[in-house]
Amino acid sequence: MSLDNTALLTDHYELTMVSAALRGPLASRSCVFEVFARRLPDGRRYGVVAGTGRVIDELTRFRFGDDEIAQVSQFLDEDTVAWLRDYRFTGDIDGYREGELYFPGSPILTVRGTFAEAVLLETLILSILNHDSAIASAAARMVSAAAKRPIIEMGSRRTHERAAVASSRAAYLAGVAATSNLEAARTFGVPSAGTAAHAFTLGFAGPDGPDEKAAFAAQVEALGVGTTLLVDTYDITQGVRNAIDVAGPGLGAVRIDSGDLGVLARQVRDQLDSLGAPDVKIVVSGDLDEYAIASLRAEPVDTYGVGTSLVTGSGAPTAGMVYKLVEVDGIPVAKRASHKASVGGAKSAVRLARASGTVVEEVVYRTGSPTPDGEGHSVRPLQIPLVRGGEPVADVPSLTDSRAHLADGLVSLPWEGLGLSHGDPAIPTRYEL
Amino acid sequence: MSLDNTALLTDHYELTMVSAALRGPLASRSCVFEVFARRLPDGRRYGVVAGTGRVIDELTRFRFGDDEIAQVSQFLDEDTVAWLRDYRFTGDIDGYREGELYFPGSPILTVRGTFAEAVLLETLILSILNHDSAIASAAARMVSAAAKRPIIEMGSRRTHERAAVASSRAAYLAGVAATSNLEAARTFGVPSAGTAAHAFTLGFAGPDGPDEKAAFAAQVEALGVGTTLLVDTYDITQGVRNAIDVAGPGLGAVRIDSGDLGVLARQVRDQLDSLGAPDVKIVVSGDLDEYAIASLRAEPVDTYGVGTSLVTGSGAPTAGMVYKLVEVDGIPVAKRASHKASVGGAKSAVRLARASGTVVEEVVYRTGSPTPDGEGHSVRPLQIPLVRGGEPVADVPSLTDSRAHLADGLVSLPWEGLGLSHGDPAIPTRYEL
């Protein structure tokens, strides 16, 4: 097992297809594959593209070394194995930048290359985009609901240990302020944060019972008075009193992790104020999702800690994107059977906006056709170059840039597009195909 | 970034707690942490423990090397950093074996060590168990619903690229026959399988239109007549005819990936039989979950391909397990505030069964108390040693053994426990605490 190699993060059938394709002209035919979502998750108004940066990074580690070759040799012929040994993606990729909003049918990623080199990337590309976009899409709703109050992402323990790292990244892209996850801090530079759990307070219990004050004193000594004390291990009112007794009014914050968070936040705010500690902030956590966050908007909450619902996409754990062959040697192709029919031919897209900046429509059109006329609206092309000749382009937007881009994008939506209730996509998509 | 190191797959606050604990006696107090689920996901009758083997493996790679030290030095004092440099878990872990069924309150994993060494493992242990158990629990329901027909797991593209590997492992544990994921084949020895996607058939299109027969011929030439041909790219009836024309009645199978799978399976079966190909099997795929699988029980389906719903836990993407400090220097401790109160003290559990093998009750009792009396039922202890003095024990059950153990466990449930409809846990849990 080599965790730095990504070549086996793919499906068996991608390789058997390559094997069959290599026996004839198909392997080297010029192909266009397109990533898109047929629909948004139930009731969602928009999706957020995330993971593109990771796709480009993992692509460079998609190589068949000796270990990978040994594995695939178990079911592949020698010619295919030899071809895989030399495998490098040499094609081009264009796509929506990270942090771009997307809608049903948006051509999120366009991969151009030979059939064999491009088909091989299907699973890896979809895994990354489907996961990261699901998390970013859910996180963006939470960030909107929090109305500028900061959110700390702390869901690592509720998802696969490596998915947790990507989740932190996607959440940060979506506007979350910080993460609990240290690997995300190292790998992607996401600010990390955290202070203490109930176990810390419980650990000070002795034969005579709990000693919350000793726990708080030890934490303040180690982490400074600006720390956040968790006040709901035993009795919250006593906990708040202990916190201020120990730390004084310069304490950074108290955290409440259970109970009716709205009621408790008000009680604790009143208590802190009456204790002469009006500057001590209140952090709430515990099963929060975008709806719970919104319901706390009128309460004296300063920071939200969000876990499970964020890293599981708040009901939509995958974005449902697909990777479809749409063109072979310039000929548009599409599956015809049943309800999964799609439209052949490489596509591009633009988004139209009013002078105010509010977007009104997305137009998907055949790549190479004239850019659609905005009829008085501004017209912004949505795809940018990401990979040329197999190499990442120099100016792929950074995570920080993408984060700002998304913040702008959300502001550009018609107001009803930011609603949490179920509804149609925030803007319609028109097809000029 | 080093993907082989797991030390940063943890939360910032685990390390700040260690830092604060190291300044006093807490760091070295003898502690017991317990992993359990307060409840099963909505309406589920049982959970399946999965991931234990991965926990043990990743534990051995939980080390703070230079890179990890550089990261945590940004927010930790020198003493803590020095302590982390030497960090090795030296304690003991007992737990439910992989493939064991669990219920609310089951003491799934018990970690014994000093506060500092044991608190540090919370996030990593929970990430693995919560993810893998969620997938295995969903997969077990699908395997039950499939009633001995094989299932191929093919959901890698719908989840994080590394979560996909763990999902394949968990699905195999739960009785799924094979996976599409090649990394799972390499890392965990899960059998991998796959043939071709629509893209392969579409790739044979030319200026004169599609050429499904050429695609089928190329696939049969490369993969042999025992392969599975995907027949719904264009017209299914014509696709089946083309498949038999090209491959003859010795063809392995046809796959249908869209449409009303029950209706289509019957049509295709009739057509195959009338074409003199009664031995050609039918594989169905496309948005299957346990309910769809069950609804196809009366149809002539031979194999199910399951993707999205499996790797996302079919509505329950995380198992909701928590890691709680329950004992400090022999003193039981527990959070008291609000609805998240739990019971202190280290716990053990046994499962009682009738002579027929049908289980009737789980009994959770204080570790060290006498094993509960079965009152005529057989009594099976549920925890086994997993780690001693920081080292994995020699006889941790293999994935294959665990798979067989789960199959036995499912058979031991009262019949209503295998129902797919919402209901209570299959057996009650009695607390002798």
From TrEMBL, chains A, B:
InterPro entries: Aldolase_TIM, NAPRTase_N, Nic_PRibTrfase-Fam, Nic_PRibTrfase_pncB, Nicotinate_pribotase-like_C. One of its GO terms (molecular function) is glycosyltransferase activity. Coiled coil: none annotated. It catalyses: 5-phospho-alpha-D-ribose 1-diphosphate + nicotinate + ATP + H2O = nicotinate beta-D-ribonucleotide + ADP + phosphate + diphosphate. Pathway: Cofactor biosynthesis; NAD(+) biosynthesis; nicotinate D-ribonucleotide from nicotinate: step 1/1. Transiently phosphorylated on a His residue during the reaction cycle. Phosphorylation strongly increases the affinity for substrates and increases the rate of nicotinate D-ribonucleotide production. Dephosphorylation regenerates the low-affinity form of the enzyme, leading to product release. Pfam families: NAPRTase_N. Its EC number is 6.3.4.21. Residues 8-130 form the Nicotinate phosphoribosyltransferase N-terminal domain. It is an enzyme of class 6 (ligase). GO terms for biological process: NAD+ biosynthetic process via the salvage pathway. Belongs to the NAPRTase family. This is Nicotinate phosphoribosyltransferase. The gene is pncB.
